[in-house]
Structure formats: structure tokens, C-alpha cells
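S.,

As promised, the magnesium ion run. Input:
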Amino acid sequence: MTSEFDLIARYFTRPAPAGMLGVGDDCALFSVPDGHQLATSTDLLLEGRHFFSDVDPASLGHKALAVNLSDLAAMGAKPIACVLGLGLPELDDAWVAAFAKGFNALSDRFGCPLIGGDTTRSTTGLIISVTVFGAVPTEHALRRSNAKVGDDIWVSGELGAADVAYRLLAGRLPQDQHRLEATRHALEWPEPQIALGLALRGVANAALDVSDGLLQDLSHILKASGAGAHIEYAALPVAEGLRADADDQAKGARIALEASALAQALLGGGDVYELCFTAGVDRRDAVLTAAQHAGVNVTRIGRIRATPGITVTDQAGEHLDQLPSGFDHFQAI
Ligand code: ADP
Ligand code: MG
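Predicted complex:
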């Protein structure tokens, strides 16, 4: 029978980089470069809450680390290492092998070695907890509290796909295999924007990663910075898999996806893991250079203003009322 120790040895014990002590002792050891602060973040993923029970284990391994790396990206931190807590209902060797494959591939790609963790049997479904450690030059972290009135608001990548995929899988949108295929990758294989976070150091004033929905997450920046924001709906980068829907609506043609579902996905959809950040108007070229450097698209979607709250206007300048809310674990049913 496979034991917990066999599993750790087989799938989670990998040579630690020089200067680090990895899996195998009571603690892992690593240091932070001189002149840097340690950035750390943790995320808990629960079966039935954050992922479907039948999700591909490789994508789950990927996502468990990706959402944490995304927090480092949003802080402008460079990954150092990570630890993994696993609560498993059973020791299913093939499942753990696939999970580890997805996890380790991303860990290798971003130079974020797994240096420790804990493994236990769970009586209530799968529990995954990842903690990441990163380094950011002292006083140069991209904090939420530093947005300035007049700043442009930017977002990386595209919006909406993960939310639509989630709703399709949860049966909250009418079944549509084509649309699911066009959006599912965004939900299951998010790409942490580490290179962009690093390139935005000294360029962006405030940043975060969009995990619970653009408006809700932006409101965290606004609260921390004591400001408000205006967003132009037509400027939002619509995910490729949803563009046909957006075009149909603009033309007033048969609406494939309800306008309200699209607005919900763009403004309120979670699981995006793109960066939303603010930067001075005089930094537009610097932002575009940073994005080019990182190989990602960035889009200017609005402005920071002094008046509190968020307003969203459409192409005609009309205010969108009934703005969707983001995801709140204690409010959602
Ligand atoms: P302890 O009893 O001291 O907590 P464990 O027996 O739980 O030690 O773990 C032994 C070693 O294996 C430790 O170095 C720990 O960090 C590592 N480890 C345990 N589970 C995992 C995991 N899921 N991923 C990575 N390392 C792990
Ligand atoms: Mg332990």
C-alpha cells in the first residue's frame, strides 16, 4: 500500500536549488536577497467550493500554484519557493501523480521550487493549501494603497472567459459545448502574470490580481487608496471565446449570450488572474513597454478619480446601473 511518505518521496521530493534546504527536514531553509523584502501569500482550495470534484487533477495542480503565483505577480515579487498542504480523502496514486505533474511543471517554469508541505488524510473531501514566497526590493512592492487621482486603470490579458466556463459547468448557463470549449482553458489553466508584475515595478502605482471580479477587486484598490474610479465598458478586453457574443450584441443581432451575462462575466467574473493596476498618465509608454517586455497585452479601461465609488459607462456614455457584484464566499449560496 502506498503510504503518505511514499507519495511525498515519489511526487513532491525534488532537488532543492543551491543555497536552499528543501523537502526532508523539519523546516525548509532559504534566504531573501539583500535589500529585498519577503513577500508571502497563501490560498486555500476546497473541493466543491473552489473546484469541481471531477476536475482534471493536472489542471488542479497547475491552478493551485498559479493562483498563488498570481498574488506574487500582483505585488511585483519574484518567486523564490513554495510549500504545499494536501488533505486527501484517499491515497490515489494516479490522481496524485497527475496533480504533481501540473504543479511541478508550473513550479519549474516560474522557478518556484516546492520545498516543503504537509500531507494528511481528509474526512471532508480534498483540501489544497499552497503558500508562496517571493522577493521584492524593499519599498518597491506594488501595493493596493498607492493609486493616485488621475491615474489610468489598466488590465492585462482578457476578461470573462473563466466566469462563463464556470457558469456553464455549474449549470447556471444553458449548455453550450462550443462555448465551453472556447472558455474552459481560462478557468482551468490560468497563467500567472509574473513577468508583467516585475516589469511594472517603478511604473505602476497600485496593483492587484483579479480573483473575485474586476469591480470588486478594483474596489479594494479604491478603498486602500481613498479614491473612486470610472470604467469604460466598451474598453474592456473581451475574451476571444466571447467576442462573437459581444459583436452580436453591438450589432443588435440575435443575442447568443445574454447581455447581462456578458456584463456579469466582464465586470463581476472571478478566477481571472490578470493584473489590474493603475499608473500615471505620463507613464503610458512605460506601461506599454513593460507589457511588451512581458509579452502580454494590457488595456486601458478607465481612470482613478477623487469621487468615491465606481461608475461604468457604455459606448454612448450612458451609465450602466445594476452593476454585478463579485464573488463573496460568505454571501454566495
Ligand atoms: P513533520 O512530521 O515534521 O511535519 P512530515 O512527515 O509531515 O514532517 O513531512 C516530512 C517532509 O516532507 C517535510 O520536509 C515536509 O515539508 C515534506 N512534505 C510533507 N508533505 C509535503 C507535500 N505535500 N509537499 C511537499 N513536501 C511535503
Ligand atoms: Mg507534517
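The chain is about 35% helix and 20% strand. The pocket of magnesium ion (ligand 2) is lined by residues 118 (CB under 6 Å).

- D.
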